[in-house]
Write a structure and sequence with these properties.
The protein has helices at about 5-10, 10-20, 30-50, 70-80, 85-95, 100-110; strands spanning about 115, 125. Helix content is about 55%, strand content about 5%. The chain is built from 6 helices and 2 strands. The chain is mainly alpha-helical. It folds into 2 domains: about 5-50, no CATH class; about 70-125, Orthogonal Bundle (Arc Repressor Mutant, subunit A), CATH 1.10.10.10. The protein has a two-stranded antiparallel ribbon with strand order 1-2. Helix 5 crosses helix 6.
């Protein structure tokens, strides 16, 4: 996640850290450094939590030679964790281009596994459960 985004999401804490850094006669940058390290760590923990969640939903009769698309499964895991997640955030978290994510989302939609509800900006994703 870009630093600007971290600052934007934590503006009040950012300005407080800046004030605390300049509160004494001699500038002490430790409050600002602590803020930045905490913001980065919290951001990373969110992505680690999403990446470590695994959902196993494989029917018993799937043939052994059917390839599993790991990226599509990771996308579905992220959507389950946060239905409002954007393609850009998924791309950043998974280390691929947004076009790659959009291509996989289109394929998942064509397969009837996922659908977009609402607009691109204000909508959300829904996982389409298959009957067992």
């Amino acid at each position: 996640m870009p630093i600007e985004t971290l600052v934007h999401h934590n503006q009040a804490l950012y300005y407080k850290a800046l004030q605390d850094s300049h509160a004494v006669a001699q500038v002490d940058c430790r409050p600002f450094i602590d803020f930045m390290l905490d913001a980065i760590a919290n951001s990373l923990y969110k992505y680690i939590d999403v990446a470590t969640q695994t959902v196993v939903d494989v029917p018993a009769n799937v043939p052994a030679n059917v390839p599993v698309n790991e990226l599509s499964d990771k996308i579905l895991t992220m959507v389950r964790a946060n239905p409002k997640v954007t393609a850009q955030k998924m791309a950043l978290a998974l280390g691929v281009a947004d076009k790659t994510i959009k291509r996989h989302l289109k394929t998942l939609g064509e397969q009837g596994r996922i659908q977009r509800v609402g607009s691109d900006k204000a909508g959300h994703w829904e996982i389409i459960d298959r009957p067992a």
